[in-house]
Amino acid sequence: MAPDGQALAPNVYDAEPIPAAAMAEIERLLSTGDLFRYTAAEGAPVALLEQEFADLMGVRYALAVSSCSAALFLSLKALDLPRGAKVLIPAFTFAAVPSAIVHADCLPVLVEVNDNYRVDMADFVAKLDGADAVMISHMRGHTSDMDSIMALCDARNIPVIEDAAHSLGTEWHGRKIGTIGKVGCFSFQSYKLVNAGEGGILITDDPELAARAVIMSGAYETNWKKHPGMQNSYMLWQNKLPLYNMRMQNLSAAVIRPQLPEVAGRVAKGRAGHDRVADQLEQSPFLTVPAALPPEERAPDSIQFNLAGNWTDAEARDFQAQAKRLGIAVQVFGLSDGNARAFWNWEFLGPAPDLPKTRAMLMRACDVRLPTRLTEAELDYIAQAIVDAAATVKS
Description:
The protein contains 14 helices and 14 strands.
């Protein structure tokens, strides 16, 4: 390729644009000053978002909060786990996930992840006895074997929380990810399928869990009356639970709501774009894209692939440099300084556990953003640049 790759490369950093309908609603809210979700007696944008998201996912309850991390934290607190409870998580996740567990006074237990980015079921089984809860991160939208995970956890009466931050629109056996476990948590951070800058939401069919989460999210005094249903449960828990004040505010909801009808279209575009790039990467002898498990229909807005064969760390770094020269930022998870997805950088947990499978995967697993707005020509440029970069290093 020509050395002017930086100029030719598509911009993958900009988030999804905000719909015009959101702009109008934001202006209306700013003119009224009604930014707090509990100002209105009913019909506040946050309350409307919760109902619309619950309808979209086919669940009974949704609670909008300040971030997906807040949703994960509140889910653990709402489960009423004892202090020091052991919570199993995949070792391939974002640092915010073990952080939420620590924040909830629980103990993260890291489980090995294979080179297909999914939970190693043998290690999961070995560590499950003695666990109080399981938090499955569908990291970068890759779904682990939820059939086996749920069967094992249900047999032991262990609750499962789904960290579906990357998985809005993904399905497993036709069932929406986030509705399989006891709680599902989603993100509206800028690089997710729905962009609000920040924000999150939790969903559940459990009325007691939902009521506790609502109160702890910051429904002080009798603001729980502005949430439909569960009134007896709210009265039971009022003043008996701490308030963590993790509410979403109306401006965020105004940005999110007009994007919900666009989710299906974005999922289709994301899947098509991912598969188009994956097909081209698979033509290279130096790269491989792990296949999804058969029950999964993904909703990707990025692509992950492995450096295939024998690569040294120096070669992997050179590959990143060659791709960058062509204008494509490739992140090798384990070789990026201080990467928040590499478990050995979670020093707040203490000494890093011995997880050789996950470590080996992270040292050769690559990550590239593929926003759903990219054209076929832009997707082809990205794929060719990655293939060329690998060939330059290994030739």
